[in-house]
């Protein structure tokens, strides 16, 4: 019974942290897309919005100097999430596989101002 209770406790802790990191990445990607749509660099804005998450990978597709009506600024942010509890080890006892970090990503899209 103890392994099941521990698995549930560790899963609640780590999956809660993972959900929070996913929300933070999505918001950081939106902030980066907003910055790119306004003609600024996405990197500093994304890193400011995603404090506490590192390392981050940032990919930005900017607006041209004369954007069309359908032009969008797109920013994608990635993060390798690490578990802090032994939930991965306990998951293998139940037939699951959570070895290594989980890659999370967020995507932000904003229309170009022109």
UniProtKB/TrEMBL annotation:
InterPro entries: TadE-like_dom. It holds the Pfam family TadE. Residues 2-34 form the TadE-like domain. This is TadE-like domain-containing protein. The lineage of its organism: Bacteria, Bacillati, Actinomycetota, Actinomycetes, Streptosporangiales.
